[in-house]
Write a structure and sequence with these properties.
Strand content: 5-15%
Number of helices: 14
Radius of gyration: 21 Å
Order of helices and strands: HEHHEHEHEHEHEHEEHHHEEHEEHEH
Number of strands: 13
Structural class: alpha/beta
Distance between the termini: 41 Å
Length: about 400
C-alpha cells in the first residue's frame, strides 16, 4: 500500500513556510505530536525518578516508555537502550570505556566511508592505549565497501571494528551482517554507526549482528539526542567512569546525570508517529513499525529514482552516490561550478540542499573532493513529488545561470 505522505506533511508545522527540504541527513523537521509530547512532559509534575511523588512517577514512566519505544524501533531489549547527548558523545564514552581493556599492539579497524564520529573517537582511544589503527577503504568509483575490505584487515589482535550501516555522505549501505560474521569469527566487537541508516530502514539489531549500534532520533522526526543499543549482557561487562553514588544498574550505568525527560517523551512520540503509518494488518508496535518503514522506504526510493532520472538529463552533473544498495541520499558536484554556489542558488528559490563534507571528511577526501565535498540531496519521509520537481527545476536553472 502507498505511504500517505500528505498525512505526514500535515503534521509538520515547519513545512508551512513553503521550503522544500532536502537536508534530512542533517536532521528532520519536527511533527506537532512530538512537540506536544515534549511540552506535555514539561507541563506535568516532574522530579528526579522515583516511586512516591507524582513527579517522580512521571519521570520513571517517561524513561521506561522511551526505552520500550527505542527497543521496538531497533529490535533491541529495553534494558539495552542507553540515552546520550548525541551519537558522537556516546561513541566517545564507549570508546574510552572499551579502550581500558586494550593493550599495546592490539588493533582496531575503521572505515573511510564513515562520519568522523565513528572514526576519530576510536583513533584517539587507540592512541591512548597504544593500539594500531587499520583503515578499510571503499571504492570511490562505485561507492561500495565490500566485506572483504574489512575482512582482509582482521587478525587475532583485532579488538574492535567500527563501520557505518549507511554513509551520510553518499548513502552506501554496506553488507553489515556479513561484516559482522567476519568480525565475530576473530572474536572482536562490531560498533555500527546507524545514524543515517535508522532514518531510512527497518533496523533489526540481531539480524545486523552489531554489538553496539548508535542512532539519533532527530534524523527520524524526533528530538535532538543520541541512542546506543547493545545486549544488556555486553553492557554488564563494561565499566565506565562514573560518580560513586550513581547507580551501577544497566543501562543507567552509562547515563551520567539527570536525564532530559522531555526529550525522551518526544522520542517515544516520534516512534509512535512512525508506527501509525503502518499499512496492512500488523499487531504490536514492532510489527507496525516494520510495515510503516517498509512503506516509507518504497516512497523514498520512488522519489530517489525520479531525482536520479532528472539529474541524468542535466549536463555537467556528477552523482557520487552509486552503490547498489544505498539510502535516498545523493552527493552532487558540478563541472566548473562550486557546490556552495548551487546551495545558495537553490536556497534563494526555497529549496534547501546544503553543501559540504558533512563531517564525512575521510570519505570526501577519498572521493577526490578534498574537504569541500559537494551538494547533498537528502530525502526524508515528508518529501513529495512537488519538492523533487522544484529541486530539479532549480538545478537546471543553476546550470544555465
Amino acid at each position: 500500500m502507498t505511504f500517505d505522505v500528505g498525512a505526514l506533511r500535515a503534521q509538520i508545522p515547519a513545512l508551512r513556510a513553503g521550503l522544500a527540504h532536502f537536508d534530512g541527513p542533517g536532521g528532520t523537521q519536527t511533527p506537532a505530536p512530538v512537540v506536544a509530547a515534549i511540552a506535555d512532559a514539561l507541563e506535568g509534575p516532574l522530579s528526579i525518578r522515583g516511586s512516591v511523588a507524582p513527579g517522580e512517577v512521571n519521570a520513571e514512566t517517561l524513561v521506561r516508555e522511551f526505552r520500550r519505544a527505542m527497543a521496538d524501533l531497533l529490535g533491541a531489549e529495553p534494558s539495552g537502550v542507553v540515552f546520550g547527548r548525541s551519537a558522537t558523545q556516546l561513541t566517545y564514552d564507549f570508546s574510552r570505556t572499551l579502550a581500558k581493556d586494550w593493550a599495546p599492539g592490539d588493533e582496531i579497524v575503521v572505515s573511510r566511508l564513515d562520519h568522523d564520529a565513528n572514526i576519530r573517537p576510536w583513533m584517539q582511544a587507540a592512541q591512548w592505549a597504544g593500539a594500531v589503527v587499520r583503515w578499510a577503504d571503499f571504492d570511490p568509483a562505485t561507492g561500495e565497501l565490500p566485506p572483504s575490505a574489512v575482512g582482509d584487515l582482521l587478525t587475532e589482535r583485532t579488538r574492535l571494528v567500527a563501520v557505518t550501516a549507511a554513509s551520510n555522505l553518499i548513502g552506501t549501505i554496506p553488507d553489515i551482517p556479513e561484516i559482522a560474521r567476519l568480525v565475530h569469527h576473530t572474536g572482536a566487537l562490531l560498533h555500527v554507526d546507524g545514524v543515517h541508516y535508522a532514518a531510512h530502514a527497518f533496523v533489526d539489531l540481531a539480524e545486523l549482528g552489531a554489538d553496539l549500534f548508535v542512532c539519533s532520533p532527530y534524523k527520524f522526526l524526533g528530538p535532538h539526542h543520541g541512542v546506543l543499543v547493545a545486549s544488556p549482557d555486553l553492557l554488564e561487562t563494561l565499566r565506565p567512569d562514573k560518580l560513586l553514588p550513581s547507580t551501577d544498574v544497566v543501562p543507567e550505568r552509562f547515563e551520567l546525570g539527570t536525564l532530559p525527560y522531555e526529550l525522551l517523551a518526544g522520542t517515544r512520540a516520534a516512534v509512535d508517529l512512525l508506527a501509525g503509518f503502518a499499512t496492512g494488518p500488523a499487531e504490536g508496535r514492532r510489527a507496525r513499525l516494520g510495515a510503516a518503514l517498509r512503506s516509507i522506504e518504497r516512497h523514498e526510493r520512488e522519489l530517489r529514482d525520479r531525482v536520479e532520472s532528472g539529474l541524468a538529463e542535466l549536463d555537467g552533473v556528477t552523482v557520487h552516490s552509486r552503490a547498489a544498495e544505498r539510502t535516498p541520499t545523493l552527493l552532487l558536484t558540478f563541472d566548473g561550478r562550486d557546490a556552495v554556489d548551487a546551495y545558495h542558488f537553490l536556497g534563494e528559490r526555497g529549496v534547501h540542499a546544503p553543501a559540504g563534507s558533512f563531517y564525512a571528511l575521510e570519505a570526501s577526501r577519498h572521493l577526490g573532493l578534498g574537504d569541500t565535498g559537494g551538494l547533498r540531496v537528502g530525502l526524508a519521509p515528508y518529501n513529495d513529488q512537488g519538492d523533487v520537481e522544484r529541486l530539479l527545476e532549480g538545478l537546471a536553472a543553476f546550470l544555465k545561470s
